[in-house]
Amino acid sequence: MTPTRLRRAAIAAAAAALAAFPLLSDNAYWQNLAIMAFLLAIMASAWNIISGYAGYVSLGQSAFLGIGAYTAAIAATALDVSPLLTAPLGGVTAAGAALLLALAGRRTRGIAFVIVSFAFLELAAIVASNWSSVTGGNHGLALPLPTWDSDYLNLPFYYALLALLALTVAGSWAIRRSRLGAGLVAIRDDESKAEGVGVPAARYKTAAFAASAFPIGVAGGVYGYYVSFLEPAAMFDIVIALQIVLAAHLGGVGTLWGPVAGAFLLEPLAQFTNQSLSGPDAGSWRLIIYGGLLSVIVLFFPKGVIAELVARVRRWRGAEPPALPGRRLTPVPRALPWTPQPSPGTGPLLVVEGLTRHFGGVRAVDGCSFTVERGSITGLIGPNGSGKTTVFNLLDGGLRAQAGTVHLAGRPIHALPPHRRARAGLARTYQATRIFPSLTVLENLLVPGRGSRAGSGTGSVAGSTTRAREWLEFVGMGEYAGHPAGRLSYGQQKLVELAQALMLEPRLLLLDEPAAGINPALVERLCEIIRTLNRGGMTVLIVEHDLPLVLSLCDRVHVMAEGRVLASGPPGRIEHDPAVQDAYLGEHTTAGAAK
Amino acid sequence: MTGLAQTLAFGVLVGGVYALAASAMNLIFGVMRIVNLAQGAMLMLGAYLAYSLWRATGLDPLLLTLVTAPALLAVGWVTYYLFVERARTTDPPTALVTTFGLALITTGVIALIWGNEWRLAGPGYAGRSFTVAGLHLPQAQVYACLVAAVVLGGLWLVLNRTWLGRSVRAVAAGPEGARLVGIDVRRVWAASYALGVAAAGAGGALLSVLYPFTPSSGYHWIGLMLSIVVLGGMGSMAGSVLGAVLVAVGEALTSAYLSPGWATAVPYLVIVIVLLARPQGLLGARLREDMSRA
């Protein structure tokens, strides 16, 4: 059997065993253990969506357990139905709260997010204990005892949580496979780059946060009924939030099954320590054990204990994929996989006027103006520090200009956020490549998606995959589609990043030093690719230090010095322009004064 | 009117101790870019040490800062090499989770040694007040605020008037550059971390006479310190002092005019609102790695 089929069979067998277990044994201890393990697995799996895939670590995800539990309990009392029926309402409220928090916190990143999540949990606990008219405050809220025959014992809870676990894992799988999932991992790897290739990062994170809160909220509804008594300290418990983080790290952060496996490992351990430790010091020892586990695991197995052990065994058995560099590249095809549509409007494709950006006292870009003609290959050259890359960062929105306008095909784009500029038809590559190392080469191309310019960010994944393979073939990287992008050589990464930019089907392609740091054969190839793209109708703007390359490739060249364009013209004339020679050979002051 | 003035005066007094606790956390963040969630537990460790020594010797708990600060300096030094050194090399959220683990371990150890009962040191002046212009100022609060000001002043002198302080500020500005001019960056990190923990030890001695505490009071203090640091601006000492007074006054006002139950929500509300609305805080510089461009 292949590993995939073996895995499927194992999962099916485990699911069947779990489904049949309570029918075979009515041991209440084991049933309780299973129920608690399901609960933790649901929470860890849901946590993984925002914190594993998108890399936004939440220390307060258990807040949604409490929110779900209280909502379901209060609704059940008000409607006089079983809390099992109102549990989905708990999920809706939890997702709603997550949505609000994420919308308000669009700009929080990194540790700020961790702190907000922690504060949100504490705040929820305080609200629950102070809002006593609804929640019963610190006296707690008692739920009715189950109405079903006592012979069934815990079965309804058991199956409700098992089903919810299955749905959560299925949902996590679907998200990871979708464009949303690729976008989330891209955000984890490099958020601003993701925005640069058209990922609406704020919207994706909000969606992921709500998707993470929903199953936890539903589980909270069921769990509240199971324990039949709600009090703020127990329902909004930092220790539960911690167990979630711990479970995910035990199994594997960012993997589909890791959090589930971790929960199934951790819960028995938790129960065991509950029993074997007793007396007044039991709580203290538990804190020490959890704290120690957390620190050690997070520090020494950042990707998860099981995940890293598996990787180590693979390496030891030599089952790693063979090294990638050194294979021959295929010749550049003559035809493009896609024909650029003529851009609307008349006049130059890109019009930049008075662009300005200062950093403190440094005038990196200072009233820079130039145009890029339709169908041209335009070069932007200038000595080090003249502001070329900053201009690129201002064009793609990575930096905000302090003054000046940018029009693409007649449309002002200088006020748009980066992902909207990408969708408006602007794509770029970086001086030091910035592809997403944890995604495969193919997935890297799926992050921008296809036909994205038309605004249909949700085009079919299958169609995108076909197009992505075509572009990979075009740049000569077709063979590497399934490989992790982080393992490619530098030159190969440059080609992949170029293909990624092409997936945006740009009107204007910005290339930042495409030839820097790669071997001469690859430079040849890049030139050929650029010429082919241009013949196919694509407009290209290049920043490059290799003057002979620029002069041979470009129709028109702008020369920058001290943050502005000081000369423009065809390559032949630029070469002999005294102002340009001044700029390159020193005498900056005269060059600046000449302007 | 006197009611309001009384509340404000009390808030400002409380703010002194808050400022010391928060500055300790902020020093570590400013130099190492690590949010040390163990600071709350370290504060408790200082409080329990002061309490035990006061019970054993009858010495003034506020003066015992002279003992708790060096003791915690040692604890900080050891934990730096055990945990923090490695955490520093990971990404910030991972480091933060690690320090939380350290907080749990410390809390557990404190509970093993001292138990879970509520404690409060009660020197002779506890319960007495000064009366100034019709305002009642609890003597313990006044003395604690003064000691906090002295410790903060000492910290400021160390950072601004000594070679160690200069190295610390150089490393805070950029470890690479500091290394190039011959600073042993690793030792500076260890020293700053230990100094931050020592300041928490001093703060713990102060709060041992002010508020009853259990080992898990540390969690409440994590929230408080975070809110102050976030409000004042991460890495800004002056911001921490300003933030401390604002949070303390906010708590006092909420407690007086709404209910003491909601006063505990103030720090967390401050955190959520500030991080959502003005992530760089009042006096802090924007950090590129934390915030998206606005």
UniProtKB/TrEMBL annotation, chain A:
Domain ABC transporter: 350-587
Keyword Transmembrane helix carried by entry: yes
GO MF annotation: an example: ATP binding
Pfam families membership: ABC_tran, BCA_ABC_TP_C, BPD_transp_2
Topology of this chain in the membrane: Multi-pass membrane protein
InterPro entries found in the cross-reference section: AAA+_ATPase, ABC_AA/LPS_Transport, ABC_transp_permease, ABC_transporter-like_ATP-bd, ABC_transporter-like_CS, BCA_ABC_TP_C, LivM-like, P-loop_NTPase
Coiled-coil intervals, chain numbering: none
Key words of the record: ATP-binding, Cell membrane, Membrane, Nucleotide-binding, Transmembrane, Transmembrane helix, Transport
PROSITE patterns associated with the record: ABC_TRANSPORTER_1, ABC_TRANSPORTER_2
Domain of life: Bacteria
Listed name of the protein: Branched-chain amino acid transport system permease protein
This protein's GO CC annotations: plasma membrane
Chief location: membrane
TM annotation in the entry: 35-56, 63-79, 85-104, 111-132, 152-175, 207-226, 238-266, 287-306
Location(s), subcellular: Cell membrane
Cleaved signal peptide residues: none
UniProtKB/TrEMBL annotation, chain B:
Biological processes, Gene Ontology terms: amino acid transport
Keywords on record: Amino-acid transport, Cell membrane, Membrane, Transmembrane, Transmembrane helix, Transport
InterPro entries xref list: ABC_transp_permease, BCAA_transport_permease
CDD domains in the cross-refs: TM_PBP1_LivH_like
Gene Ontology CC annotations of this record: plasma membrane
Transmembrane parts of this sequence: 6-27, 34-51, 63-83, 95-115, 140-159, 188-213, 219-249, 256-277
Subcellular location: Cell membrane
Topology relative to the membrane: Multi-pass membrane protein
Residue ranges the record marks as coiled coil: none
Pfam entry (one): BPD_transp_2
Keyword S-adenosyl-L-methionine included in the entry's annotation: no
GO molecular function: transmembrane transporter activity
Similarity comment: family membership: Belongs to the binding-protein-dependent transport system permease family. LivHM subfamily.
Protein name: Branched-chain amino acid transport system permease protein
Organism expressing this protein natively: Thermocatellispora tengchongensis
